[in-house]
Amino acid sequence: MLTELLGATRARTLALAAPLTDEDAQLQSMPDASPAKWHLAHTTWFFETLVLAPHLPGYRVFDARWPQLFNSYYESLGPRHARPQRGLLSRPSLAEVKAYRAHVDAALADLLPSAPPPALSRVELGCHHEQQHQELLLTDILHAFSCNPLLPAYQPTRPTTVAAPEQAWLRHVGGIVEVGHAGPGFAFDNEGPRHAVLLTPFEVSNRLVTCGEYADFIASGGYREPLLWLSDGWATVQAQGWQRPLYWQPDGSVFGLHGVQPLDPNAPVMQLSFYEACAFAEWAGARLPTEFEWEAAASLQGFEQASDQAWQWTRSGYAPYPGYRPAAGAVGEYNGKFMVGQQVLRGGSLATPPGHSRPSYRNFFPPAARWQFSGLRLAR
Ligand SMILES: [Fe+2]
Questions:
Q1: Among 39, 94, 257, 344, which residue's Cβ finds the most Cβ atoms within 10 Å?
Q2: What secondary structure letter does DSSP report for 258?
Q3: SS3 46
Q4: Distance 358 CA to ligand 1 centre (A)
Q5: Ligand 1 center from residue 114 Cα (angstroms)
C-alpha cells in the first residue's frame, strides 16, 4: 500500500514537470515561488535526509554539497541557500536533479521491504509532503508564465466549462461539534488534537463564489470603495494597485493553466487574496466562514465544490489546536512554527492531488497571497 503510494507520488511529480522545458523548470518569478527544478529536488532531499540517512544502513548521499541547496526551512538540519535566490541555481542541471530522484527512489525501494515502523511513517509523511509540492509546482510555474507577455499555456487544451450549481444557503443548527482529524488514515499534525468547539447557528453557501459574481463586484466599484475592505487590505489595494484577481486580464479574459481563456462566469473565482475574499463577502452582505464552521458544514447535504475547485479562505487565523505540540526533532518544524500571521484555507483545489485533502485539512497562507488557487464560499 505504502509502496504504491510512494511510486505513484514520485511518478506524478515527474509527470507534472514533463510539459516544462529546462528553461521553464529554472524560473523563479518571486521570492514566494520556487523553480520546478527546486521542487523536484527538495521533495527528494526530504526522503534522503529524513528517511534514508537515518534508516538505511550504508546509504550513500547522492551529493554531499546539495542538502544546503534543497533544505527549505529546517533550522535543525543545517544552513540553507536563501529562498528568494533559488532561481539562481543553474547547477545542478535538471538532468542531474532527475538522476538524484532516481538514486533516492532506488534506495527507498531497498529500504521499504525491511523498514521499521518509524521509517514507514516518515515515508508516508514524505509522500504527503511531495503531494503538497505538486500543487506548488503548478501554482509557481503558473505565476512564472503569467510574467511572460506570451502567457504560455501549461496545458494547451480547452478547459471544460460546467454550469455553476444554483446558489442555496445550507443551515447548520450550531451547538457543540467535534473538529479535527478523527482517523483512520494519514493527517498532518496541525489537524489535531480533535476537540470540541461551540458554533452558533449559521448558514453557508452550497457553492463557491463565481467569476460572474466577482465581475459584478468589480463593476460596482468594489476595488475603489474603502469601506468594504479591512484596513490592511485597503492599504494593499492602494500599494499594489489591485483592480481585479491576479490572473484576470485587462481585456476581460483570464489566464490559467490552459493559457488565456474567455472569462467563464460559472467558474469559481480564484487567485484571490484573503483581503479580496473579505471585501467581496462584505459587499455581498455576508462573511467568510470560520474554519470550524467550514468543517462542520462540509458534511451537510448539498455542500458542493468542497475540494475540487478552489481553496476557500476562512476567517480563522492559523493557530494550534488545544493540546497541540510539535513533534520532537526536525519534523516538528513542519507546521507549528508557521502558526502566526497566516489565515486558514479549507477544502482543496483543481491543482490538489486526488486524495490529498480531507475535511479536517488546514492549508494556510498570508492574507495578501493571491497566486494560489484560492477562492471563497460565503457564510452568514
Ligand atoms: Fe517542503
A1: 39
A2: T
A3: helix
A4: 19
A5: 26
Q: How far is the CA of 70 from the centre of ligand 1 (A)?
A: 9
Q: Return the biggest CA–CA distance within the chain.
A: 66
pLDDT of residue 349: 98
Contact 316, 291 (CB under 8 A): yes
End-to-end CA distance of the chain: 42
**Ligand 1 centre from 66 Cα, in Å?**
15
CA distances from residue 338 to 31, 73, 98, 159, 326 in whole angstroms, order as listed? 17, 11, 30, 35, 11
Torsion sign, CA atoms 207, 210, 214, 219? negative
Q: Quote the pLDDT of residue 329.
A: 84
pTM for this one? 0.97
Report CA(86)–ligand 1 centroid distance (Å). 14
| DSSP assignment letter at 323 | T
* SS3 of residue 133 by DSSP: helix
pLDDT of 164 reads 86
Tell how far the Cα of 129 is from the centroid of ligand 1, in angstroms. Answer: 6
pLDDT along the chain (380 residues), means of 10: 96 98 98 98 97 96 97 90 96 98 98 95 97 98 98 91 91 98 94 98 98 98 98 98 98 97 96 98 98 98 97 98 91 88 98 97 98 98
What is d(CA 56, CA 113) in angstroms, rounded to the nearest whole number? 11
Nearest alpha carbon to residue 245 among 379, 378, 371, 376: 371
**What's the pLDDT at 76?**
87
Write down the pLDDT at residue 161.
81
Question: How much distance in Å is there from the Cα of 54 to the middle of ligand 1?
Answer: 19
77 CA distance to ligand 1 centroid (A)? Answer: 13
> How many whole angstroms from 39 Cα to the centroid of ligand 1?
8
Helix, coil or strand: residue 206: coil
CA–centroid distance, residue 276 to ligand 1 (Å): 27
CA of 42 to the centre of ligand 1 (A): 7
CB 376 within 8 A of CB 280: yes
Q: What separation in Å is there between the alpha carbon of 175 and the centre of ligand 1?
A: 37
